[in-house]
Here is the input.
Amino acid sequence: MNLTVNPNPGTAALALYDGARGAVVAAASVVSDPQVMSTICRDAPDIAGQLVAQLPEAGARLLHGITLGRVLAAGWQKSRELRAAAVRSHEDGSRGKTAQVRLAAHSITSEHRPYVEVYAGERKVLTITFSVDLTFTIGLLYAGIRDGRLVTLHPGGDCEVAVSWGMEGFKIGERRLPIRIPAVAVPLGGGILLARPPF
Here is the structure.
């Protein structure tokens, strides 16, 4: 069993907008601007009308695909303090025991550049790149490390996420909000791998 971090909100789309359709509505308001579409479709102006109808939904799907828990887990896998504790957990006398590590306030930053490819029949005519930038500010956090894995999390401070979403240099939305990271624990053998055994 793996450790799963399920913050609330759970995806970048839900962090930006209160409802599932909010991302579609926001993207639609941007692509309906003639200047935006003339810039995006400069190499294929004849498809602009169709693209206005389909691009918001495609962009929103990309945004919904970025789960905040996975981003946090990937960030903690890069933490020097957690990785050092994970290496120590493989030493004689430490195996099978959970060591508590206190992480002071820290940030995790993640940049995503998903894209949409647009085809006219069988021919690719455009690639439209979106930007999703996330910055988590996490207060005090207690982490349990056992056998090279992050196995428990106990938040001890406030947490927030800042999300910025854009398309081809045009801003679609941005927001900063508090998030809730639940305390979690997993059985022996599970968790997020931080360091493999030395042998």
About this structure: The mean pLDDT is 88.
